[in-house]
Amino acid sequence: MGKLLIVGTVAFDAIETPFGKTDKILGGAATFIALAASNYNVKPAIVSVVGEDFPPAYLELLANKSVDIQGLEVVTGGKTFFWSGKYQHDLNKRDTLITELNVLADFKPRVPQEFKNADVVMLGNLHPGIQMQVLDQLESRPKLVVLDTMNYWMEHTWDALIDVIGRVDVITINDEEARQLTGEYSLVKAARKISAMGPEFVLIKKGENGALLFHDKLIFFAPALPLEDVFDPTGAGDTFAGGFAGYLADTENISFENLKNAVIHGANLASFCVERFGTERLQDLMPLEIETRLQEFKNLTQFDFEIQ
Questions:
Q1: What is the pLDDT of residues 27-84, one digit of tens each?
Q2: How far apart are CA 238 and CA 253, in angstroms?
Q3: How many CB atoms lie within 10 A of CB 205?
Q4: Amino acid 227: pLDDT
Q5: Which pTM was predicted?
Q6: Is the model's pLDDT at 1 over the cut of 90?
Q7: Could you tell me if 263 and 218 are in contact, meaning their C-beta atoms sit under 8 angstroms apart?
Q8: Which CATH number fits domain 2-301: 3.40.630.10, 3.40.1190.20, 3.30.70.100, 3.40.470.10?
């Protein structure tokens, strides 16, 4: 059973979409990643921080999903990171209404001893300095280090971001961020430039238009599954990353061919995430549902054609 170390936010989210709104609910990149990865035969552990206001029921939820929470610090008297956002009608655009860092502002990650030799490390979207501190605490080189980041860090912590990019094997960013990071409109050229920064694999997410995986001169495209109901896209990218990393930690195979499988598994789990608010759908997801939808992906993408 592979060990998967996850660093990222565990948070409260308040979300409004054209289909409804919530008060504070469970959210955060590390939460989505861990819940997604828990569907595989892995030992996931979260490194993050919450305040004293974080409900014990949420900690129990993670523990019941076999997520190790030794590295999830609870700050006495502190308040948990809070984000609030409102989505436009097409769900591809959102406005951030509130961001309260709270205990995250002074977060110093502590990797549990048991996970300092993790097989796969998933660096969720956080300050690159925190991501680097996690890498510095490891006692052995993981088989795979995956980095997720965003445009905010490109704008405000460029040097630190470039440093951490140079220490990872896979980077996952969206198409807009890939273009911002490289100054290239062509995603093929952008991937080539990003790979020159250090990562062996570049995974560019395109939301409802699927994802592209680049390795040397090889390119793989995975579509997003067309869905009847899309309710809330919050956490879909993190769920994708969790399925991707969880599958690789389970199979212990980091070849390009197996990373292609991991992309499909990530996209599959992300398709469930958007069906309800926040983490609700991931909390009660059943193995048969995952398997059935994987078959739908296979039916969508696999066919024979003739070249005349």
A1: 999 999 999 999 999 999 999 999 999 999 999 999 999 999 999 999 999 999 999 9
A2: 21
A3: 26
A4: 82
A5: 0.95
A6: no
A7: no
A8: 3.40.1190.20
Angle at the Cα of 198 from the Cα atoms of 115 and 110, rounded to 5 degrees: 25
Q: How many CB atoms lie within 10 A of CB 130?
A: 21
Q: Are 177 and 207 within 8 A, CB to CB?
A: no
Distance CA 8, CA 48 (A): 6
pLDDT tens-digit series, residues 194-234:
999 999 999 999 888 899 999 999 999 998 888 887 888 99
Tokens of 263: 């992309």
CA 160 to chain centre: 20
Residue found by looking up tokens 């951490």 in the block: 164
What single letter denotes the amino acid at residue 246?
G
